Amino acid sequence: MKRHFLSRKKILAALLVLALTGGLALGAVSGRNVSGNPEGEDEGGEEKTPEIEYTIGVVNGKSGSDDLIQGFSDALADQFREWAFVLNRTDTEGDAARNAAAVTNDLKAGSDLIFAIGDSALSTSATLAKDLPVVGADVMDFQTVLGIGGSDWDGKTGTNVTGISSLPDMEAVLSLLIEATPDLSTVGLLYTEGDTNALLQNHLLEAYMDEAGIAWKEYALPLSVDPEAAAAAEAAGTPLPTLESMTALAATECSVLFLPGNSALSASAATISQIALSLGKPLVAADRSAGQSALVCAYDNPYVQGYYAGELAVRILRDGYYPGDLEVLPSGTPIHKLYSRSYADILGMTFPKSFTEYSEFFTSYDMSSDIDREKETEKLQ
Fold first, then answer.
1. 281 and 308 share one domain
2. Hey, which bits of the chain come out as E strands?
């Protein structure tokens, strides 16, 4: 049975209509128009200003989220043609205190829903806004972020939270690794300790490689090394591993290196790339940030992720679904295969038309072209 999550504004609107009509206009809370006029027009045939406004707090804990938020906004606009809605965006850069302040302000403002972008923003929103619907995006592992245990999770949180996972299609990533490595023998999987996003992707990729008979090795790259400990170890003749030394080891032992998406190592992608390239090895990345330093990258369009997150918000706000009953969905976007011409030239490699040069793609590509908005609009109506 479908549970409902009615916003405070819908409840107040319903009570007001009941008070004015003696209970004859109960259908006014169906999610269309409080006047009871389904076309949103006055008696003279002119379009009326929408009488209900949805206020949505956007707690943005990630940089580079403009396309994601635009997709979310476009999905709302496509469904709420006769409604007004407002997105109150706060950029927090993932800072815990700023996340908390943003959520608190959204609660005080009487927001109807929170759109939480990034792990920290989702975690804070889920903790502080337990009585408000929360839709998360740009979050790879909802289960870990929300502290949901069990190996057989069905994708439903059972709480006020749902969302769109940014976990890449790892089967598509494996295909990319194969295409980018003419003489594929062993794949070097990079991560740093405690990086749950990287560990999850590597684990899933390992299963696909085992099935395909492709060898792999994992390499833990330290983000930093204590200078005093490093000096002592050097003096003792047992130098500590560094990001540079571990990357060089991986590139020596493997035919290609994989840098997971949304990883703690993404900020070090340029260094990792330089070492791999100096040893004549490809680096394959699974996100845009690291992709600018890699030979090839798998790009998952954030506009589409945002659009699907917006559709979840529509189902909650307009159709009354309880977030915990809506399964956290994969992004569902096609992987764009991008390559670096300069990296490829150094390795003497060329790529087919199914690949697009990295800088050219982001200069000319229309992010909204990956989704049929008219079809999606009809699907939800």
1. no
2. 53-60, 84-91, 113-117, 134-139, 161-165, 186-191, 215-220, 256-259, 283-285, 296-300, 329-330, 335-339, 355-357
Structure tokens at 158: 């059972």
Q: Is residue 348 assigned to a domain?
A: no
Separation CA 56–CA 72 (nearest Å)? 11
pLDDT tens per residue, range 1-49? 455 555 555 544 443 333 333 433 322 222 332 222 334 455 555 665 5
pLDDT digits (tens, 9 = 90+) for 60-105: 999 999 999 999 999 999 998 656 689 999 999 999 999 999 999 9
Range of the domain at 258: 170-286
Same domain for 53 and 16: yes
Nearest to 86 by CA among 119, 120, 112, 60: 112
Length of the chain: 381
Extended beta strands in 15-156, E state: 53-60, 84-91, 113-117, 134-139
- DSSP state, 321? B
Residue 31 CA to residue 145 CA, distance in Å, equals 32
Residues sharing a CB contact under 8 Å with residue 374, sequence separation 6 or more, in sequence order: none
CA–chain centroid gap for 228, Å, is 39
What's the rounded Cα separation, in Å, for the pair 172 and 177? 9
Helix ranges (H only) for 58-195 are 66-79, 96-108, 119-128, 142-145, 170-180
